[in-house]
Amino acid sequence: MEVFTDAKGLQLYTGNFILGNENGKEGYCYQKRDGVCFETQYYPNSCNISNFPSCLKKAGEPFESVTIYKFSVKK
Question: Half-sphere exposure of 21 toward its Cβ, with a 13 Å CA cutoff?
Fold first, then answer.
């Protein structure tokens, strides 16, 4: 998998803390480590660290971001 984005950072979440009692699609019960999420965004805590790019937007100010996930298979 490749990720192309204009965002400054990438946050990775895993299902390490799923308790085994969360029901998902078609009643499937998710277990620990059953999922992963790649979320493009600003750097964590960037609103409080002056040398990080600002993530603050004024009310009504438009926000756009582009992320492309490319999946391929090696032969």
Answer: 1
Q: For residues 7 and 67, is the Cβ–Cβ distance under 8 A?
A: yes
3-state DSSP assignment of residue 46: helix
User: In this structure, what token pair is assigned to residue 47?
Assistant: 């609103």
Q: How wide is the angle at C-alpha 32 spanned by C-alphas 27 and 33, nearest 5°? A: 105
pLDDT tens digits, one per residue of 21-72: 888 889 899 888 888 899 999 988 898 999 998 889 999 999 999 999 999 9
Neighbours of 34 (CB within 10 A): 14
Nearest Cα residue to 51 out of 59, 43, 61, 63: 43
Band of residue 75 on the pLDDT scale cut at 50, 70, 90? confident
